[in-house]
Amino acid sequence: MAQEGILVAGIWFLLLTTIMATYRVMVGPTLPDRVVGLNTVTTKVVVMTAVLAVLWEEWYLIDAAIVLLMVNSVSGLLLAKYLERRGRRA
Q1: Which of 25, 31, 47, 55 is 20–30 Å from 8 (CA)?
Q2: What span, in angstroms and rounded, lies between the C-alpha atoms of 32 and 37?
Q3: How far, rounded to the nearest angstrom, does the alpha carbon of residue 74 sit from its chain's CA centroid?
Q4: Which residues cross the membrane (predicted)?
Q5: Which domain CATH number covers 28?
Q6: Is residue 21 classed exposed, middle or buried when 0-12, 13-18 and 19+ CB atoms within 10 A define those classes?
Q7: Distance, CA of 3 to CA of 5 (rounded, Å)
Q8: DSSP secondary structure string, 41-84?
Q9: Are residues 43 and 17 in contact, defined by beta-carbon separation less than 8 angstroms?
Q10: Do residues 3 and 44 make contact, with C-beta atoms less than 8 angstroms apart?
Q11: Total domains, the chain
């Protein structure tokens, strides 16, 4: 029972920091700041999904978290490549 409380507290902490990172995505002064913020938000969502899968014993959520993590990785690489090419033109 105490372990569940720790996991729930972790979820709340991750949710709070996700909201803070979302602010960085929306307001971020530069495009790279926004990309890093979006990557951070997605990673936190993956961790929350994995923790909820353990809490609820719904193991298919682990599969969803893994797929989201792969999409996050590929999109991060694509955005980095876009920013690199954009930097050469400027």
Answers
A1: 25
A2: 8
A3: 13
A4: 6-23, 35-56, 62-83
A5: 1.10.287
A6: buried
A7: 5
A8: HHHHHHHHHHHHHHHHT-THHHHHHHHHHHHHHHHHHHHHHHHH
A9: no
A10: no
A11: 1
Cβ proximity of 11 and 19 under 8 Å: no
> Which domain range does residue 68 map to?
2-89
CA angle 60, 66, 70 (to 5 degrees): 150
Give the number of other CB atoms < 10 A from CB of residue 44.
19
- SS3 state of residue 90: coil
Residues 27-86 have pLDDT tens digits of: 989 888 899 999 999 999 999 999 999 999 999 999 999 999 999 999 989 988 888 888
